[in-house]
Every structure is written in structure tokens, then in C-alpha cells.
Amino acid sequence: MQPQEAPLRTPPPVADTQPQVAIIVPVYNVAPYLSRCIESLVAQSIPVQIVLVDDGATDASGAIADWYAQRHANIQVVHQQNKGPGAARNAGLAASTAPFVTFVDSDDYVATDFVERMLTGIRRSQADIAICTYTTITRLGFHFRPIMHKLLPPTLTGAKALRLILRDTSIQNYCWNKLFRRTLFTDQHIAFPHICYEDIATMPRLFSRARRVAVVQDALYFYCRRPGSLLAIYTPERITDGFTALAMVRDFLIDSQQYRKFRWAFQFLIHKFAIYIAADTIRLYFKRQWPGAARAAWAAYLHTLDLATNDVIAIHQGMGVQAADMLQK
Question: What is the distance between the alpha carbons of residues 249 and 256, in angstroms, rounded to a whole number?
Fold first, then answer.
């Protein structure tokens, strides 16, 4: 009796063997947290491309990234001088090749099925962006999740998602916890600005180009608050960057002739962010033991509200100098 030959297997299509998602990680002085982040990326349930951008770290972060790259073929490390998170994200976009991209902060981590679930959401809805719920881990170790995502349908139109991200409520304007079709960036040469709030300035531009947005309601991203992070450092430059980011959003809406349509959503963001900027100003003044914290906070609050009422299109031009002068007074 002749032994039966095993049936020939049809090789999987190229699209299934090549990574469809690139994970871009800006890295700067996060040595105690970086291994946890990278381990969560190499453990993904489907193949991924990982680009670690060493943004001129002065601790062991760059060496840790290189160590992982030597042991994992799907990890690439880009070393550059310190230019900030926006420039690091741009460098990661330039180095990556997969048709979808996502961003993970180097002190955070993700679930092992993060990429697979997000990509499935995009394919299910024929969407250009996917978002997922996240878990916030506080400095004291407490865990909590926003409940607003539970109120969203599985698929949103691009216009509805843009309105929500402008309001920064059920969809926050972070660039993490999202998966993007690469062409959203490349077709219009969209890049992150070199400011602190680079995601606030960029997310509306990307969402305005999306036909549909998929919503994954499970918490697949773990956002870890820690002392020493960029958002925990209060400087005049950071506060000025907040003004600039909001003004860039306003200018984009006006230039794309969408300001009237999304005016109230934008004004909601302005009023919300004005409180944050005022609070940051108070912290800055107390930290540096400057007098006049209350007066400076009130001035910063009113200055932010000007973005909602001033009809000057290029209002952010010269704003950096004005804001810095105001905060020094």
C-alpha cells in the first residue's frame, strides 16, 4: 500500500506574511520603563514592524533599544539628536513601511492583541482609523477606564469622529490608542509639528480625512502616568505650545473651510483647554516661586479664550513671544 502524500499547502498571500502595522515609539530617558513597553510589542499576536526612535536620550534608553533590535528582526532603531516627540514621530513614520501605523509612548504598554484587534476593526468597518479604550494607571498604581467609549457605536463617520475629537470628550486627541491608514499622512504630507502638544495640532487633520472610524470598546492600551514625564514638567514653553497647538487647529479648520461646521466643537475644546492652561500657569508660578500666580493664570485663561473669538486666521503667528512675555510678567 502506497503511503499517501501530504496535501500541498497553498502559501499564504504576501499581505498575510508581511507586517501590516508599524508601531512607532518615541524614546527619551525612559530606561526604567522601556523594556516593559517593548516586551508588550514583541508579544503581539500578529507580525508587526517596530520602529524605536531614540530622540537623543541621555540615559540607557538608546542602549536598551539597540539590545532588543539585535534580538528581534522586526525591530528597527533610529538614533537622532533630541528634537522632541513630534520630530521623533515623524522620523518613525519616515523609517516605517507598513500600510498602517500606530504610536505607543515608551512609558506605556499594550495588550498582546492590541494590533490584531485594531486592524480587525478597520477591516470590519472599511475604516481609515481605529480607536480603542484605554486603562489609565496612576502614579499610586490605581487603574481606571473612561466610560465614554462604551457610548460609541462600532463605526463612526469621519465627520462625527472629527466633531468628537475636537471636543476631546469620548475621543481624546492623543495619538496613542489609535491605528491609522498610512495614506492619511502621506497623501497630504501631514507631519507632527515640533511642539509639546503635537497630537492636539495633528489629530483633527487626520480625522478630517477619514471616511470612517472603527471603535474597539475593549481597553487594549495602558497609559501610565509617572513623575518626570513631559506633561508633568511645567515651563513657559510648554504653556506657549498649548496656545500654538490650538491656534493651528483653528487655522486648519478655517483654511479647509470647516470652521463654521465645527465651530461649537472647537470652542468647547478652547474653553476646556483654557482651564488646563490656567492650572499649568499656577503650577509653574508656585514651582518657581514667582509672585502673581493668580493674575498670570487669569491672563493665560483669557488669552486662550481669544482663540475662540478672534477672527484673525493666523493668530498663532507671534503668539509664542507674546505668551512668553505674558508669563514672565
Answer: 11
